[in-house]
Each structure stands twice: as structure tokens, then as C-alpha cells.
Design a protein that fits this description.
By secondary structure, the protein is an alpha/beta fold. It has 13 helices and 18 strands. A hairpin with a 5-residue loop joins strand 13 and strand 14.
Length: 480
């Protein structure tokens, strides 16, 4: 599965001097996304990346998005049935733990082959990032107050704990009481590749829907801490003199957007954050022929000689449409008048069994009228969030687009369909998996851990849905 795990590593302030680390000592960075989980293994001695493993988040069985999973977690216990059914929090927690344990084992086996002969791998440190909901499930903290306004998480993390406390749900005194692990899970625990007392750092979250993954992405993007002194002699190791605004967006099932506004002589800078519930369309879900970014997925389209031409990952026969392919298809169909600015199919219609319209991209893959509408809703959510943040700065920011979806899309096509404002196209840096890169840097740097805490403290979360005029802007943004 081609989940993007690479990203731009930030500069680490500390230098390696007389390190006592053994070549066998490894660190693991983890990014738990709503749709995908990525694990990266590093040599702590050499600061060298060894291997990455990525998988679809197994929690999708409980719902494709955060809202559905929170609803599953807060459901009342089932009664009147003799079947043994795990509670919502237990099911979500153990689902993550068992998947991580298996991913760790796979990653460590692959990493051990890259160690000097005679050394057995030893996991000495871990950093786990993710959005606030995923981290709550991981640590078995209640999400009951995240189901309705004012959306208050039980904790914003920024904690040091151990792997055993995480997997047993005992990180905090207020953790939700879990059901007993199943025999299968106990066996996984007993054969774990991770020593029980391995130290784990979980970076801070900003709010209910702006998680530690956003803080890590800010670190990867080089966000300064607002209010830093402008004199180079007074700057702390993580501070830099940045005069241009920075905007980072991690676009996915839950898109998180953060804007850094620089200091001025009149007032200190600030960081404004918001999130957009864009849904799973950009991940290839909720689309008729949607699929992850794996071999056979259409990731690029063009129109040549009056014919739609599809490019697939791995140059295999097309079997579906991934997120970047969806954006490309929409742009090509719009530019060549297969669909109009409202997204309505007007050319080369085919009919599905229910009578609804579609366009055949290949004999095996089509895009339906409903697929186009789902994509429009997703892109309007992101566009509305970006436009809200752009209203807070008079200068066009440097735009850092993060995540696997952002790494693969065509910026021109994203502007054609209105996903991105046109002024950002020439100001964009594609960071790859910035959350995982930031988490990886935190394996090596206490200074950057201090910066993470400072960035979270200085950031202001805005509930986009509560902003006056949001609904009108969202509806306006649906059309191409």
C-alpha cells in the first residue's frame, strides 16, 4: 500500500556529541491518522531512518470518520443479548493496540536487517502523534464530551508515559475502564517486540479537532513560536526570524489548517488553527470505485485525442480511483466540458442500475454523479477553511501542504476545481507526511519537544462552523 511516510525533516537543534547510544538502540515514530497509520524506525545513534511501515487504520470498521467513531465509543452497553460484545472504548482501544503491535513487529524485523552484524534491535524511545480523537482512543480516555459542543477532550496530552501504560489503558487516573483483553490480545502482549517500560512521548494537542499531528506538522514546516525576540542574539534554539506568514494544511478525512502570522512592531504574532470535516472522499472512500493509493488505482487523468486516458499506480490495469485520481478526473472532466461548473454531468452520460448518471473512465471504473457531489462537498469544506485563514493576513502565505493526499495531487488541478485558492499555487511546498517527520524529530530533540509545547500554547483554535457566514461560504464553494 503506497501510503506516504516520507516527509521533510526539520532541523534538529541539538548536536550529537559523545553519544553513549548503542548501534542497536532504535526509536519509533508513529502517526495515527483517521484513515492510515504510519510507523517509522530510526537509529538513535546515527539519526538515520531505517524503515517505514504503513497500513489502513483498522478502526475504519467502526466508521470512516471521527464523528462515527466517537458515536460508537459513547454508545450505551448492549442489553438483552447473550453475545459477548466489547464496550465501544475497549473495542476502539484494543483495535489500535493490536494493529500497532503487529506493525511494530514487522517494522523491527525489517530494521534489524539493516543493523551492524551481531546487534539485536532494542527499542529505547517512542513518539506517538495523531489527532486528538485517535490519541484518546489510544490512551483510553473518554471522548464523551467531544460528541457535542463545546467539544472538550479529556486531556490535551503533552505527556511522557510507557508503552505498557498505553496498551493497558492506565496512562491517567481518569482513563476509561477497559474490558479484559481477549486471549488473542494477551498473546500479542506477551510476545510484544516493545519492552513494557519503553518510554513514550505524546506531543500536545491544541483542541478537540486540532491534534498533536498538527503540532508536529508545524514543527516540520518550520513554524516559529509567536512572540519570539527579533534579535538573533536573544533567539532560543527553536526560534527563527520569519517575516512571511506560513500556512500548513493536512488534507484528509479531517483536514487541519494552521496559519502563522508573524510578529510586527505593533503586535506579537499568533497562530490560528481550524479544522474542516472534509470526509473520506480524498482518501478514496465514499466513492463508487474509490480505493486507497495502491497498485491499479487511477492517480492521474488526461484528455488526448477525444479520449480519456488514465494513468495508474504501478502502471497496472485500472481497478479504481484514489484521492489524487479523483481530483485529476474532476479537473479533466470540467476543463473538457464533461461536467459543468455545478458538477452536473452533461456529456457522455451512462446510466447506473438505479437510473443515476455516471461517466465511464475505463470499462472497469466509472465516476458517478453522487461521487462528484461528495468530492464537491469535501473540497468546499477545505476551501472555506483556507479562505477563512487567508482573510487574517494581508500577505499571501507560504503554503505547506502535508499528508499523503497533498503529496500526490497536482496543484494546478487542485486550483482548477477550486480546492485551493489560485494565489497559493505558486507559493506551495509539498511536505509529504509532515506529522510523521515532526514526530521523528521529537525522538532526538528535547528542545523541539519544548517548542511543541510552546506552539500548542500559543495556538488559537477556531470552530469554523461557528464563524458568521460560514454556511453561505460553504454553499458557495461547492460549485467549481
Amino acid at each position: 500500500m503506497q501510503i506516504v511516510t516520507e516527509g521533510e525533516m526539520p532541523k534538529i537543534p541539538e548536536q550529537i556529541e559523545n553519544s553513549n547510544a548503542s548501534p542497536a538502540e532504535l526509536g519509533i515514530a508513529v502517526d495515527i491518522g483517521t484513515t492510515t497509520i504510519a510507523v517509522s524506525v530510526w537509529s538513535l545513534l546515527k539519526r538515520k531512518h531505517l524503515v517505514s511501515v504503513a497500513e489502513k487504520n483498522a478502526q475504519v470498521r467502526y466508521g470512516y470518520d471521527i464523528i462515527r467513531r466517537i458515536s460508537f465509543a459513547v454508545r450505551p452497553p448492549l442489553t438483552g443479548s447473550s453475545a459477548v460484545v466489547e464496550s465501544g472504548p475497549s473495542a476502539l482501544h484494543y483495535c489500535l493496540i493490536s494493529q500497532l503491535e503487529k506493525m511494530f513487529t514487522k517494522a523491527i524485523i525489517e530494521a534489524s536487517a539493516k543493523l551492524p552484524r551481531g546487534y539485536q534491535p532494542k527499542i529505547s524511545s517512542m513518539v506517538i502523534t495523531g489527532n486528538t480523537t485517535m490519541l484518546s482512543f489510544l490512551c483510553s480516555t473518554s471522548v464523551n464530551k467531544m460528541a457535542a459542543a463545546p467539544f472538550t477532550p479529556a486531556t490535551l496530552f503533552d505527556i511522557n508515559t510507557t508503552w505498557n501504560q498505553i496498551r493497558t489503558g492506565t496512562v491517567f487516573d481518569f482513563c476509561v475502564e477497559l474490558d479484559n483483553p481477549t486471549p488473542e490480545l494477551l498473546q500479542i502482549f506477551n510476545s510484544s517486540s516493545i519492552p513494557a517500560e519503553t518510554p513514550v512521548y505524546i506531543p500536545p494537542c491544541i483542541g478537540a479537532f486540532i491534534g498533536a499531528d498538527s503540532v508536529c506538522a508545524m514543527i516540520a514546516a518550520g513554524f516559529p513560536v509567536p512572540g519570539a525576540k527579533n534579535s538573533p542574539s536573544t533567539l532560543r534554539p527553536w526560534e527563527s526570524k520569519v517575516t512571511a506568514p506560513l500556512l500548513v494544511a493536512d488534507i484528509g478525512t479531517n483536514s487541519e489548517l494552521c496559519l502563522y502570522i508573524p510578529d510586527t512592531p505593533e503586535q506579537p504574532g499568533k497562530i490560528i488553527c481550524t479544522s474542516a470535516a472534509s470526509g473520506p472522499a480524498f482518501e478514496g472512500a465514499n466513492i463508487s470505485c474509490g480505493m486507497p493509493s495502491i497498485e491499479g488505482a487511477i492517480d492521474k487523468m488526461s484528455y488526448q485525442g477525444d479520449k480519456l486516458v488514465c494513468h495508474t499506480i504501478g502502471d497496472k490495469n485500472p481497478v479504481g480511483l484514489c484521492g489524487s485520481g479523483l481530483i485529476s478526473a474532476a479537473a479533466v472532466l470540467l476543463e473538457n466540458k464533461f461536467i459543468d461548473k455545478n458538477g452536473i454531468i452533461i456529456r457522455e452520460k451512462s446510466k447506473l442500475g438505479d437510473g443515476s448518471s455516471c461517466i465511464e473512465l475505463t470499462p472497469a471504473v466509472y465516476i458517478s454523479q453522487q461521487d462528484i457531489r461528495n468530492m464537491q462537498l469535501a473540497k468546499s469544506a477545505v476551501r472555506t477553511g483556507l479562505e477563512y485563514l487567508l482573510e487574517h493576513t494581508s500577505e499571501t502565505p507560504v503554503f505547506c501542504i502535508a499528508g499523503g493526499f497533498g503529496a500526490k495531487i497536482s496543484l494546478r488541478e487542485a486550483c482548477v476545481i477550486g480546492l485551493l485558492p489560485s494565489q497559493l499555487e505558486k507559493r506551495t511546498v509539498q511536505l509529504g507526511n509532515a506529522a510523521l517527520s515532526g514526530a521523528s524529530a521529537l525522538l532526538f530533540s528535547n528542545v523541539l519537544r519544548e517548542k511543541a509545547a510552546a506552539l500548542a500554547k500559543k495556538s488559537v483554535q477556531v470552530n469554523l462552523a461557528a464563524v458568521p457566514g460560514f454556511q453561505q461560504k460553504f454553499l458557495k464553494g461547492i460549485d467549481f
